[in-house]
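Researcher: Structure for this, please.
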Amino acid sequence: MPVSFRPLLSLIAFFFITAFLVAGCNSPYTPRKKGYFHIDLPEKKYVQFDEPGYPYTFEYPVYAKILKDTTFFDTKAGDWWINIDIPSLNGRIYISYKPINARNFDSLVNDGHKMAYLKHTDIASGINDSFMVTPNKVEGIYFSLKGNTATANQFFLTDSTKNFLRGALYFDAAPNEDSLSIVNDFLKQDLKHLINTLRWRN
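Model: Predicted structure, token format:
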């Protein structure tokens, strides 16, 4: 009568599987590091924005395009307001301009501070403002915001007598300081270049 080895083989297989599972349970768990998508950043090159009729001129990146801003919170935008779109990085720099008269300078400066502070105080973990004087003798304030704010970089520039320009960088993405940090730092260089090359026409 032939001897069946199936029960013995099943017992051996059960032993090895059980030993493997027990050994696996005792191995240390290594969590996967949190990561984000790789972003290919374009090469830094700039062109001049020098449209006739505009009271200012500056250099902006070649990978951006300029569109006239026609609305601002459902109201008509100013005549010299523009958006600088960076489609490859889902970014947009909003540029607004207002001429200064004898009555509105203080109000414009106060509004520039309010847009940085009052709009983001509840969300920002920190706000730093720094006074600037550019190589073209343009003065202004640069605001750096920390935390998951809608914008991490804002500024305003003025000559205190005729011209007042405000800029803010936004992204078409959920605010996340960690995931946007690389792009924010990259475009911050472009903001600084815009600021340092800005000239008033009048």
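Researcher: Any notable elements?
Model: The radius of gyration is 28 Å. The CA atoms of residues 10 and 123 lie 62 Å apart.
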